[in-house]
Amino acid sequence: MTFARVDDDNIQCFRGAYFAGVTFLPYHAEMHRNRERSLAYRWIQDGIVKALGLPEYDGRRLADRASPPPSLSAQNSYRGGGAPRLLIAQRRKRTIANVSWIAETGRHLGFNVLLTYFEGMPFAAQYALVRYADVFLSIHGMALQWAFAMDGTTPASRGCRTVIELRHFVKPFPLRLQFYRIVTSSANLSYVEIPAKSAVMGESVERPAQELRRLMRERVPFELKGFHDQTASYENELVSNALAEAYKKALSCPA
Asked: Where are the beta strands (DSSP E) in 25-140?
């Protein structure tokens, strides 16, 4: 694993490895009681901060949140002024249609907002951006696996940081396949899921109308092109309410 350079395949492999290794640990109906999974995430956190030379967790001030480590300052320049930080990860496929509106709504609420793409971004930058975020919003996908990096490790920080998953246009998954709900619960984060109200299929989908019907009918349609190639839209009220609630929680986070 190379931390410094851009290598999307390498990063995807890393996320996939811990995704499989940790997500499929046995879990209880009350997922926050799964000590094994929480300890696994903690072990990954400790290994990465040591490799990157970042401050440790455990409630210590995160390197003065307004002044990120110099080597990462370019990637973390959205932090400043003490405002809660909203990180929005857009994708080049399976995209969020009204993402600009979401970013502007976040700014209006008082967030310090960064809208970015993780594709083509070095591992260290991706990790640092999520770690220093107070709210992380993304459409369903592997970017959300970074949620484990957010700081929910101390009693004062538990539940004050939020992950908002915008579910793409698809039939709701059974609980055992709601991976990011499991990740956030184990990492002591608040979690909100917002369903898509509609979607436009991408160019790779040959029969869009039929594909949309199949996405809402089939239980786990991973093999469908429309599962991966779509632009999803969301109810503005649901998104703004989720952001407003997350903002209130973020204000209670330790400095």
From this structure: 85-90, 95-96, 112-117, 135-139
Q: Rounded to an integer, what distance in angstroms lies between the CA atom of residue 182 and that of residue 22?
A: 10
| 116 phi, psi to nearest 5 deg | -145, 170
Does some domain include residue 224? yes
> Cα(1)–Cα(247) distance, rounded to whole angstroms?
35
User: What 3-state DSSP class applies to 19?
Assistant: helix
pLDDT along the chain (255 residues), means of 10: 51 54 49 62 79 69 40 42 86 91 96 90 86 92 85 70 93 78 83 94 93 87 88 96 96 75
Residue 167 near residue 195, CB atoms below 8 Å: yes
Entry pTM: 0.81
- The DSSP 8-state label assigned to residue 71 in this structure reads G
Indicate whether 242 belongs to any domain: yes
CA 164 to chain centre: 7
**Residue 184 belongs to a domain with what CATH number?**
3.40.50.720
Number of domains in the chain: 1
Contact 227, 215 (CB under 8 A): yes
Q: What range does the domain containing 194 cover?
A: 8-56+83-251
